[in-house]
């Protein structure tokens, strides 16, 4: 059976621990590969290699911006050349359906390298000569060793979104994928190795969050942590790493409101709602998991969901026609089912779904029905907490003020959507809802190159665009005196 190795200092290596993690296909429960299970010692080696790569005069530090861009474009080409292999690997190990991994994830990853390669010349500072004989300039310098700790969902995209701006700015990187999702990430590293990144500039460590992730996060030689994952984990990482004062990009959890007014085009709104909550089986940070629907149209919208949700094509994720696959793991499936049970105990009613799918071949995998819970109230845990599965909670509201209040009534601030034919109201709601992304009359659609920042406990970062690149740099002020001159401050120095 394949054993996935780590990539440290330009070499593929297995951990001295001798331990491995089984990689399970969640569509059928079978072990499809194994990954070496790293330790804190492996993290030390990877960070030391990255630190050497950052030293003045190293092969990485002496690359010009054009050289870095060329490497990144080559990496993007090589990722795309592996598109089919990457998509199949990700689908088999994560259960994410092929039509998503093949046509979205791979290009999200290659696109991040390509996009940030195009910005390498934008790392400019400012200059001022207002003090006569002195020229003051600010320059943008790389930070140093950047750690990228990635989640299992959308693993290629989130990993590349952290790596690409870090590398474009000249930083070496150490990546730690989720122990559930190392397969496609390791293949991406094959592309980076083939592209010719100098030893130590790109490193991959594998293992558990508790051992390898926390050792990386707390490492004193790591200058920045780019973490994408749950809010509790993010909080833990900030706490553990506080002693060495690092920079953070934290992309954390969400519980995004999807607001539907009675003047909305309901046909489009329900289509987008289903896309927003059932894509990737709801395992999407910006999933529109809370429907807030205006009282007058609530019954009609629920009838539309009852008619349309059962038509979702649930199937084996590798089948190109499958629209909806399994949960990522048995443990995650059980967590999602526990939340559905909890919702019912709290007083919610199951309108659609609500169960594990166990008939025939589905019984070997970890499938949960697309689920809609009605009669939900704001205080319920199913409304407040991120379930990260195909579970939509439904609440009604009377007017715009109440819709905004309910939308803002959780600790999260990642994303949200509003559907209305009144553009003035759309803008008021987009401004009033305290999230990093708002969509009006759309959901899960964006424009490449535009930056985004999570609000409240959904994190702290600037992701995307030039603003996202600058997050991987530190400003330096340089003062150049044209003619050496004494200060004249202390007497007797003339
Ligand atoms: P997670 O927090 O359990 O794990 C994320 C990563 O952190 C993994 O690599 C894990 O091994 C590592 N980790 C775990 N404990 C650690 C510790 N103590 N120290 C250092 N690293 C540790 O999240 P997950 O279950 O992999 O992913 C799902 C979560 O990610 C959801 O909450 C989802 O909303 C969030 N997410 C957010 C975004 C975003 O852009 N905001 C994108 C994707 C996923």
Automatic annotation (TrEMBL):
Residues 12-478 form the Aldehyde dehydrogenase domain. It comes from the Bacteria. The keyword Transmembrane does not apply. It holds the Pfam family Aldedh. Keywords: Oxidoreductase. The keyword Oxidoreductase applies. The active site is at 251. Belongs to the aldehyde dehydrogenase family. PANTHER family: ALDEHYDE DEHYDROGENASE-RELATED. This is Aldehyde dehydrogenase family protein.
